[in-house]
Design brief:
The chain is of the alpha+beta class and about 600 residues long. It contains 23 helices and 13 strands. α3 (about 30-45) crosses α4 and α19 packs antiparallel against α20 (about 505-515). It starts with a helix and ends with a helix.
């Protein structure tokens, strides 16, 4: 039964559990437990207070409430009032403690364990009135029990805001609460001091009970403000980051654009690895009399072009929309075709500069006669005139075997930085390409590695530089065995006087070994061993006669036949191969004969002029 139900029963005249239990008829488990705890204490001769007994009786009871404690104390008082303590020799004494006055139950023969409060001197009291019956409320409150009930019933429930409220303690100013307080004090359930304390706690509760909700509301509001502030901060940070990112992108784009205008750091896949190395060997370049260049900008300045133009000329693309060479095939004298690559004008001009200012200043080995100023096929053949044995060997795929890495290594070797060497090597090499079409667009697709193109003015000079070590080794090999060695482009010629025929096989084997070590290969099908008994030719010139060069007999006969027939039919009728400028071609052939055999050449020229 709730506390407020007891209050209602009091004012409506109904019984309470306390009144019933006081006479021992409630049958409550709590009453039995209280009495059992009392007997246990008395059997031990211990002193105890009502709250000690309640603690013993309810120590194992979960969910102990204030009502349980209050009812337990009432049971103890009721048992004493019924005289149940006297048979056990127990009585009680009112004691004072810091928490207030309380009954102490103890054996009648022993003094209380708690000292009585000291007697304080007080002024004399007036003569007291006769003893008042505690149940006579009329003399205390000027209200009889019937009047209390009558007044309580007259209170209109909806006139007060405190009826039915279980979350607060009504204030003393409430009419109904004041009436209840009187009844509680009258009945002895609570003292005035206790009621005052209860209402003080209630007032404090009324003052602060909404604090959590307000705090929660403020916290929610603050949280919303914090979230809004956080979102605003995030938005501001995001905007700052976006602006910073845009600034970085813009700065990067500007750096890239400036670098494209002023520098070259990438020229295609597989060829750009060394473009960042700008270290040049200045002393070596000066010693060779070469222009000092360390960076792409230096090369562009030397060539008289811009950085973007130089990048365009050097860039390596596996599939190019615009090719730098015009490729075409011409028939070989020995059969088959030879692929020639003619550079476009701007690239040809750049290659011409490299040839004049770099390649032609590099020394060439003595055995090399091809593409060297002051040397020719005639000087090459003259070294082998009147010899007993002449061996002609041919290097297979001479220009295609000199690839981009070897050319770049050549320029690095003479002192240029890897970056400049890369650019010069790209200017002087090209991949074999085939025309392909994809998605409506035409491309020149690379079918092999970059190498010396046959048609670039730089290719012969570069090949002589790449073959320098080969020439040195083969010349040393020949001199050590009493032979003579020369090279005209990819034609190797060895000759010896009498008595060396037994060394031919061993010499050729050794030559092949050296050639392969230097990165080349001998074309086996084109090798020839010419002895003195038959015609011996070197680069198309007959060298059998001692101290004299000769033109092959079939070439002289062909020229004589053309000139003889031209007297009858005219020169144009002899152009059976439809050559573009037949007369110029004919004069060129006669000039070649003059270079080898002056007398025969002059006779042919006079016959041509007479037509």
């Amino acid at each position: 039964m709730s506390f407020w139900k007891k209050v209602v029963d009091f004012f409506t005249g109904g019984p309470t559990s306390i009144e019933t239990s006081a006479v021992g008829t409630s049958g409550s488990p709590l009453e039995a437990a209280i009495w059992s705890a009392i007997k246990s204490r008395m059997a031990k001769g211990e002193s105890f207070t009502p709250i000690d007994v309640v603690d013993d009786a309810t120590s194992s009871t979960p969910g102990r409430t204030v009502k349980t404690i209050t009812d337990g104390i009432a049971f103890v008082d009721a048992f004493f009032a019924r005289g149940l303590f006297a048979p056990h020799g127990y009585t009680r004494t009112l004691t004072s403690t810091p928490s207030g006055q309380n009954w102490l139950y103890h054996p009648a023969s022993s003094a209380p364990l708690v000292a009585m409060p000291a007697i304080v001197a007080q002024p004399a009291l007036k003569a007291s009135a006769p003893a008042i019956d505690p149940y006579d409320v009329g003399s205390l409150l000027t209200l009889t029990p019937a009047e209390l009930r009558t007044r309580a019933l007259k209170i209109v429930p909806w006139r007060t805001a405190w009826i039915g409220r279980t979350d607060v303690i009504p204030p003393e100013s409430d009419e109904r609460t004041a009436l209840i307080d009187r009844g509680l004090e009258l009945r002895g359930l609570l003292t005035r001091a206790q009621l005052v304390e209860i209402h003080r706690v209630g007032d404090e509760w009324l003052k602060h009970k909404d604090a959590p909700r307000l705090a929660q509301s403020r916290a929610a509001k603050n949280a919303e403000e914090a979230v809004a502030q956080l979102r605003a901060e995030r938005a501001r940070t995001k905007e700052e980051k976006r602006a910073a990112s845009e600034a970085r992108k813009k700065a990067r784009a500007e750096r890239i654009a400036r670098r494209k205008r002023e520098d070259i750091v990438y020229l295609g896949r597989g060829v750009s690895a060394l473009l960042g190395d700008r270290r040049a060997h200045v002393e070596k370049l000066n010693a060779l009399g070469l222009p000092v260049m360390a960076s792409p900008a230096d090369v562009a300045t030397a060539l008289g072009v811009t950085i973007p133009a130089l990048r365009f000329l050097c860039f390596h693309a596996e599939a190019a929309r615009r090719a730098h060479y015009v490729q075409f095939d011409v028939p070989k004298r020995s059969g088959g075709v030879r692929r020639l690559s003619a550079p476009m004008p701007r690239l040809a001009a750049a290659q011409q500069w490299v040839l004049e200012h770099v390649l032609e200043k590099l020394p060439v080995e003595r055995p090399a006669h091809g593409f060297v100023p002051g040397r020719s096929t005639v000087t090459n053949a003259r070294e082998h005139v009147g010899r007993d044995i002449v061996i002609n060997l041919d290097l297979e795929s001479f220009f295609p075997s000199i690839t981009f890495p070897r050319v770049r290594g050549l320029f690095v070797g003479v002192g240029y930085s890897p970056a400049v060497a890369t650019i010069l090597a790209l200017l002087c090499t090209e991949s074999a390409r085939t025309r392909a079409e994809y998605d409506g667009a035409k491309y020149d697709v690379a079918t092999g590695p970059r190498a010396l193109p046959q048609g670039a003015c730089t290719s012969p000079a570069i090949s002589n530089q790449i073959a320098r070590k080969l020439d040195q080794r083969l010349r040393g090999l020949a001199v050590a065995r009493g032979w003579t060695y020369t090279r005209y482009a990819d034609d190797l010629t060895f000759s010896a006087p009498e008595g060396k025929r037994s060394e031919i096989a061993r010499l050729i084997a050794r030559i092949r070994h050296v050639v392969e070590e230097e990165g080349f290969r001998i074309q086996v099908k084109k090798g020839r061993v010419q002895r003195a008994g038959g015609r011996q030719t070197v680069t198309g010139i007959v060298v059998n006669e001692t101290h004299k060069l000769g033109v092959p007999r079939e070439d002289v006969r062909m020229l004589r036949a053309i000139l003889h027939n031209a007297k009858k039919t005219g020169l144009a009728a002899q152009n059976r191969d439809a050559k573009p400028d037949f007369e110029a071609w004919l004069r060129g052939k006669i000039a070649y004969v003059q270079m080898i055999d002056r007398a025969r050449g002059d006779a042919l020229l006079r016959a041509l002029d007479a037509l």
